[in-house]
Every structure is written in C-alpha cells, then in structure tokens.
C-alpha cells in the first residue's frame, strides 16, 4: 500500500530528478547504443529501444536530407567537412557502438564533443576505436563514402566546454575542406541551422523552427530550439543569416530546449583553433605599396 509518506518521498525524488536534468542536461539520457558488430557498417539499423542525449523539440522532426540540396547550395557546401564519428566502446568483454558528429578544421584535425572522445561514461564503457565517416548522404547508397581512422588521444580537450580536437588519418580535409572558424554569439531568437548525423543516419539539416533562445543559464552556453537526436553530439551550430559559427551542440531536454557550448568561449580557450583562425585571416592592407614592387593603383 502506498502511504502518504511513500508518495511524498516519491514526489520529492521526481522533483529532484527533474531539477538535476534541468541543471545538467547531459543527465537527460545516454547516447544511442548499437550492437558491437555494427562497427564499420555505414547503414546502422536503429535498435528497437532508443536512448539519446539530444532531443526533438516537437512531436515531429524537422530534419532535411542534405542530399536533397543542389551541389552549389550553401547548406550542401557547409555540410561537406562534417561527418559521422563512429565509436566502438568496450567494458570488460562487452562491445557496443555509439555515434557522434565531427567536423574538420584542418587537413587532419577534427572537432567533436569531449563526451564523445575520450568519452568515458558513468556506465564504465570506454572508447577503444573510432573512425570518421565522410560523404554519407543517403541510406542504402555507400558509393563515394570514405572512412578515416581517428586517433583516440586528444591533442586538445576541455570537459567543461565539452570539446575535443583529435587527429584524423588520411588528411580528409584536403578532399572535403574545413569548417570556417569565424565565430560570434547569436542574438536572441536568431535563426540557426545544424548539420548533423542524427540517430546515425545520413547527413541531415535542421533549420525549420531552429532558433537561439533569449535566455541562458551559463555564460559558456547557448540554448536553442533545433531538432537533434543521439548522434548529433559534436555538431556545429551556425547562424542561418550569415553562416557564422555560433555553437557546438552537446545536449538537450525532450520537448523543451537544446544546448550548445558557445564557439566564442571555445575559441577563447583553444590554442589550436585560435592559431588556425589567425592563419586563415587575410593580412591587413598596406597603407602604401612596397618599393619596387611593380604595384600600381587602379584608377
């Protein structure tokens, strides 16, 4: 028989659990886990029972396949350096597969979430192998898809900002390009978009009803209303107005709000990305041409 005391204790536990999820969105649930023998597969059939960290905001998703956009479309171009990060996890003799999203910032460097790599979770599973799947645009069509081995030793990582930079074999950035690191903070209610491998599926875009929230609880985070699922962890968040990089998606709460780390906060911390950003910046214009340069002003 349920007594008033038991009811009150249960209610208190539920309230505390809800408060914990609100305070720590990463506690909302684990990533999707696939059988260990799925590692190395391109198409990943979804298991019957799904658990995921990132969440849909409404009852139906707003994902659009990247393959539906023409080759010269700005979303298709922005999507090229973004891939699916496949993770083989182990604990004892058990093996499972999880997925995140990663994006290239140089020929051989990739950004994703810290909770993806090194990614040791509370359940004790550790990442024992990882690879980056590029150009996966349609389920059932594996032509033109490339897979690159990922080094599990982060060359830069920060658990508080939930970002990691790792090295990728094979220099995929030479073929697929890199995500421009020009970043800024979004305005409240600004239109956004996210390119991601949600649920491990082929590359997809979320832009419908995808906006920044006016409110923020932590200075290093932004809140957004863009659909995501397990596998979206590590995806870059862009402004839909000027294509500026504004965030690194990492978590969410079902039907309420999703969360990203501010790219401005990450750039302020990351020596590697700051160096790459500085190297990509054009030199300041000279006040006058150097002597004997052959330079002539255009009249």
Features:
299 residues; alpha+beta; Thrombin, subunit H; eight-stranded antiparallel β-sheet; seven-stranded antiparallel β-sheet; 27% strand; globular; disordered N terminus; disordered C terminus
Describe the protein's architecture and organization.
This protein has helices at about 5-25, 75-80, 175, 265-270, 270-280, and strands at about 35, 65, 80-90, 95-105, 110, 125-135, 145-150, 155-160, 165, 190-195, 205, 220-225, 235-240, 245-255, 255-260. The chain has five helices and 15 strands. The protein is α+β, with helices and mostly antiparallel strands and about 300 residues long. It has a domain at about 30-45 and about 80-175: Trypsin-like serine proteases (Thrombin, subunit H). The strands form two sheets. Strands 1, 3, 4, 5, 6, 7, 8 and 9 form an eight-stranded antiparallel sheet that branches. It has a seven-stranded antiparallel sheet with strand order 2-11-10-13-14-15-12. Helix content is about 15%, strand content about 25%. The model is unreliable at about 1-30, about 50-55 and about 285-299 (pLDDT under 50).
At a glance:
By secondary structure, the chain is of the alpha+beta class. The protein has helices spanning 4-23, 74-79, 173-176, 263-269, 271-280; strands at 34-35, 63-65, 82-91, 94-104, 109-112, 126-134, 146-149, 156-158, 163-167, 192-196, 204-206, 221-224, 236-239, 245-253, 257-262.
